[in-house]
Amino acid sequence: MAITIREISTRQxxxxxxxxxxxxxxxxxxxxxxxxxxxxxxxxxxxxxxxDYCEAVYYMAYDGNRPVGRIAGIINRQVNEKTGKxxxxxxxxxxxxxxxxxAALFGAVEQWAQSKGMTELNGPLGFTDMDPEGLLxxxxxxxxxxxxxxxxxxxxxxxxxxxxxxDADWVEYKIYVPDSIPEKHQRIANIVRNKYKLxxxxxxxxxxxxxxxxxxxxxxxxxxxxxxYGYSTxxxxxxxxxxxxxxxxxxxxxxxxxxxxxxxxxxxxIAIPSMTRAMQKAxxxxxxxxxxxxxxxxxxxxxxxxxxxxxxxxxxQNTGANxxxxxxxxxxxxxxxxxxxxxxxxxxTNGKVQSQWQYFEHEQHKRRxxxxxxxxx
Length: 377
Prior knowledge:
This protein is α+β, with helices and mostly antiparallel strands. The protein has twelve helices and 14 strands.
C-alpha cells in the first residue's frame, strides 16, 4: 500500500474530512455521526472563535484515490501559557486498521507540531472542552452520545505501537432514574437550600434564559472547570457563540438553575433528550429528513436523557448544592419517561462529581483516554 498524506484546507475538502468518519462507521449500531455543517463550522478558522488563540492543520491519508484516514493537529496557546508546556493536540482522528496509515497520519502531525516548536503530542482533544475528547477504551458495545467520540477497538493498539501512553482517563455512567427522589438525597437538598439560602430558578421562555442567564451560565462553567484536565477558558466571543448555538435547543424543563440570596448563579444543570438515534438516522445531514428526526428526539418521547452540563461554582462545590439540581430534575425525568441518564465523561479522579451518583442505581459503562507522547527527541 502506497500511502499519501494531503493537507486539507478548502470547504469541499473539509466536507470529505468530516464525512470520512461518517462513512467509516456507517451501519455501526453504537457510533453517532456528527452533523456535517456543525463539524465543518468547528474546523473553519472564520467560524470558530477558538481560533483567536488556536491554530490547526488537517490531513487526510489516501491509498491512491481512496481516503483511508484523517487527523487534525491543534495548538491551543491559551492552555500552553497556563501549563507552561509546549503541547500540540491531535483530534478528529480516524483510520482504517492499517498501521502504515496511522503511522503516516501521526507522523505528519508530529512533523507539523515540531515545526511549531512543540515538544509533546496529546489527545484526542479538540480546540476546547466543548469538543469531543478522549479515545474510547471500554464500552464499545454501548451507545455513544452526541458529545463523545466513538472509535474501533484497534485504535488503542495503533496508538500504543506509536509510543503513546495514558495521560488521563474519563469514565461514564448510566444513572437509572428512580421512581421517586431518594429520601436521603431529598433531605440533603432541603438542608442545603435552607443553610445556604439557595433557590431553584426555572425559565419558561428561551429568550429569558438567553437574556438573563446565558452569560452567567458560561462564566460559571469557566469558574467551575478552570482546573480540570486541559480546560481552555472560554473567551467572550466563544461564550456568545455557544449561547447562540446551544441554549435555543434545550428543553426548558430540563434546565435547572441555582441562585443564592443575591440572585447570583451558583449552579447549573442542563439535560437534553438523547439525540443518538436521531443522529444515526440523519447520517450527518439536516436535509431532506434529518431535521425531522432531530426535532422528534428533542420534542417527543425518549427513554434516555443526556446530562449535557453540570457545574457548581467553586465556593459552593463542597456544600452539597448539586443535590438541589437533581431534586429538581428527577421528577421531570420521571414525568418525561426517561429510564436512565448518560453522565457523559467525568475525569476518573474527580471524586466530587462521582460521589453525587451514590444515592442512585448506577453503572460505569464506558471509559475513554487521553494519550501523551514526547516528540522531537
